[in-house]
Predict the structure.
Amino acid sequence: MEQILLVTAYSYFLGSIPFGLVLTKLFTKTDIRKKGSGNIGATNVIRSGSKILGVITLILDSFKGYLSVIITINIFPEYFYLSCLMVFLGHVFSIWLKFKGGKGVATYLGVLFAFDFILPAIFIISWLVITLISRYVSLGSIISSLIVLLYNFLVYGFNNSLIFFAYVILLIITHRSNLSKLLTGSENKINL
């Protein structure tokens, strides 16, 4: 029980660090939550005028997902899936932001890197192709997570498929406003 609580705590708190907000406040003296979509993630940081800070946000949000799961794999491997879930939930429901947060894509990507390098490669390539064609970041993120789930299921069967299915559902939930905008044609396209 103590190990479960420990894994839950460090995974959640690592995930809850709002790098997008911290970086924009530190370097631009602005609150990213009052710009663009109001989201703290890399996409909104980029859309709000700082591509460099956006890329750094992406890297750091990914790294916290990777770090949390790698720590768990090496110390508490039996709670691997718990860590995968809690670091994501920490990002989406950050204690530092009154249980609000980002959409979780970068943190999810970091978790994929903790599995192996094939899954994040599949996600990144799929995301690039779909986003370049559609110019919708949200569409690229959701479809790419579905492709990762499908690949994992076809190659490994049910191994890890439950956590990837959970991620697909969670990413659909965190992108529900984007999906509504996609259906009405009002979703913002990214300028590439």
The first helix runs from residue 2 to 15. The CA atoms of residues 42 and 54 lie 5 Å apart. DSSP finds ten helices and no strands in the chain.
